[in-house]
Amino acid sequence: MSLLQRLVAPLGRALKDRRPDEALSVTRTPAFHTDQHIELTSTAFADGEVIPDRHCGFGIGDDISPQLQWSELPAGTEALLLIIEDVDTPTRAPGIHTVASFAPDGTELSEGALTAGNRRIAYLHHRPGRPRYFGPSPIPGHGTHRYRFHLYALDSTVKIDRLRKVDQLPAVVDGHVLAGGVLEGTRTTL
User: Among 95, 125, 140, 168, which residue has the fewest nearby CB atoms (within 10 Å)?
Assistant: First the structure.
């Protein structure tokens, strides 16, 4: 554990029982509701399992996005939208790590595809620095965090790179979500 992590751990332990209201997740808004399901999986971890170090962020790993694959998409899919959220952050609403949009070419994103230099992918630029994949990095001492990878099939492309706030997403996708799927992994920083 780094010096910074050791310094932050007492704060994490103090906030251990504080969790967000999952109902406030952007993915729970009516704009994202769909009855059609996409099966989302990864070769890096199974649903509910620990996300390996290499796919984690600050203080844990290398921030390399995991491989993701999905089942057949509905007819009319023009774009895919990936939202990665931490549903256990000690804030009012779940924390959003990454929002990315890309063409539905193929049935997977290869490991490491979610980089700032990949021109096939557009990002919502809501965090400081270059938009890219931000891997799990829970507050030391806070306990186990669940990270949900939400994938949505859309019937049109979305210009998320022009947005600056996550709460702008529902208006952009409203009426365009054809199907959705979720893969959940966990991570703990002692």
Answer: 168
